[in-house]
């Protein structure tokens, strides 16, 4: 199992490098940068790692976690408003969720993907597809996350989607996901 996991992880590193450029590895975490996101061309740290479980029974299929750091040094006084806005954003987005990590005072996006190491080709295709969609979603909503990080009450997600390309990207992503999932279920 460890050999399959290591081989799969090396392939994931290649996917990250192809999509994002240089990808470093440190203590089992792959790290790269998504560059030029959103209207203002901001960057986000993208990390991928195996989720760790304390009980192997919980881990029938290994789970890859995609974690993107979007904003840091969040002011404590803004946290309640930011959390409310992120909750609204999570209702509108397709993959993963946006959140606040208090110990590091940062805003993040996280997506978890179970992978079947006995079917590496289809699992790697899903990793590739998921990364593309996560990057599209970050491109669509990073500006919003940065706006609410500075001023949580300045704009809600509906206003943002109406004034940017975020609504179009979200609709397109949902359509593609439905087609992909429909094809996967037909193959089962």
How would you describe this protein?
The protein is of the alpha+beta class and 188 residues long. It has one domain: 2-Layer Sandwich (Yope Regulator, Chain: A). It is 49% helix and 23% strand. A six-stranded antiparallel sheet has the order 1-2-3-4-6-5. A hairpin with a 4-residue loop joins β5 and β6. The chain starts with a helix and ends with a helix. The relative contact order is 0.14.
Put the structure in a nutshell:
By secondary structure, the chain is of the alpha+beta class. The protein has five helices and six strands. It has a six-stranded antiparallel β-sheet with strand order 1-2-3-4-6-5.
Question: Structurally, how many domains make up the residues?
Answer: 1
**Count of helical regions:** 5
Per CATH, the architecture is: 2-Layer Sandwich
Strand content: 15-25%
**CATH class membership:** Alpha Beta
> Between the first and last Cα atoms, what is the distance in angstroms?
23 Å
Order of strands, widest sheet: 1-2-3-4-6-5
Secondary structure class reads: alpha+beta
Q: What is the general shape?
A: elongated
What is the C-alpha radius of gyration, as a whole number of Å? Answer: 17 Å
User: Which residue ranges are poorly predicted, with pLDDT under 50 across at least 5 consecutive positions?
Assistant: none
The amount of helix comes to 40-55%
* Number of strand elements: 6
The main sheet comes to: 6 strands, antiparallel
Looking at the structure, the CATH topology is Yope Regulator, Chain: A
Order of helices and strands: HEEEEHEEHHH
* Global mean pLDDT: 86
């Amino acid at each position: 199992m460890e050999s399959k996991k290591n081989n799969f992880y090396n392939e994931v590193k290649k996917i990250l490098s192809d999509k994002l450029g240089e990808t470093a590895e440190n203590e089992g975490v792959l790290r790269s940068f998504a560059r030029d996101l959103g209207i203002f061309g901001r960057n986000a740290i993208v990390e991928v790692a195996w989720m760790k479980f304390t009980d192997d029974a919980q881990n029938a299929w290994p789970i890859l976690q995609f974690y993107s750091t979007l904003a840091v040094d969040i002011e404590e006084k803004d946290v309640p408003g930011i959390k409310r806005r992120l909750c609204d954003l999570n209702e509108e987005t397709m993959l993963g969720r946006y959140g606040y990590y208090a110990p590091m005072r940062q805003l993040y996006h996280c997506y978890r993907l179970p992978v079947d190491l006995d079917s590496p080709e289809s699992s790697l295709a899903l990793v590739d597809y998921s990364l593309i969609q996560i990057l599209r979603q970050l491109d669509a909503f990073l500006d919003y996350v940065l706006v609410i990080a500075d001023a949580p009450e300045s704009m809600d997600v509906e206003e943002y989607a109406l004034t940017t390309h975020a609504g179009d990207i979200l609709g397109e992503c949902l359509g593609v996901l439905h087609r992909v999932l429909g094809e996967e279920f037909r193959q089962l």
